[in-house]
Amino acid sequence: MHSPPAVSNPSASLPAPVDADSAACLRCGVCCHSTLETYVRVTGDDWARLGADAQRYAHFIGHRAYLRMQDGHCAALAQQTDPATGARLHVCSIYSRRPQVCRDLARGSPACEAELLRKGPASSAAHPGLPPAPGLPLSAP
Fold it and tell me: What is the value of pTM for the model shown?
């Protein structure tokens, strides 16, 4: 198995040392992946918080704004390889300015667990090394 190439994104550098839950989030990234163009709703407050980057990362569909999705994940997601461990990391390039719906999704919360359960089997295939959702097998039969 080979590691994905590191993504160079100056606005999304590797995070400082983090606790175990944060490290697990960086290795997972399931909540940032979807093929739905309307996956992450952006409110007026969110748009304002994004500032000059709003049009880069968000767009309107009808009269509602959403984060842009590309290649099956949020356009703000920078997939990188941790040089120390070789682990794939999913780093949010707008973390401090992310939409409220992203802020509300806490690691291990019922919403987080629902994402893992809903996307578990597909996520395991798309994210080698991702720990399975609770109650799911390590690999598909």
Answer: 0.70
**For residue 21, what are the contacts with CB-CB under 8 A and spacing of at least 6?**
107, 108
Average pLDDT score over residue span 112-123: 74
- Tens of pLDDT, residue by residue over 72-106, are 999 999 988 888 888 888 889 999 999 999 998 88
Answer with the residue of higher pLDDT: 28 or 139.
28
**Chain-centre distance for alpha carbon 124:** 15
CA distance 104 to 2: 34
Measured between alpha carbons, how far is 78 from 13 in angstroms, rounded to an integer? Answer: 9
DSSP string, the chain: --PPPPP--TTSPPPPS--HHHHHHHHH-GGGB-S-TTSSEE-HHHHHHHGGGHHHHEEEETTEEEE-EETTEETTEEEEE-TTT--EEEEETTGGG--HHHHH--TTSHHHHHHHHHHHHHHHHHSTTPPPPTTS-SS--
Q: Domain-by-domain residue ranges, the chain?
A: 20-124
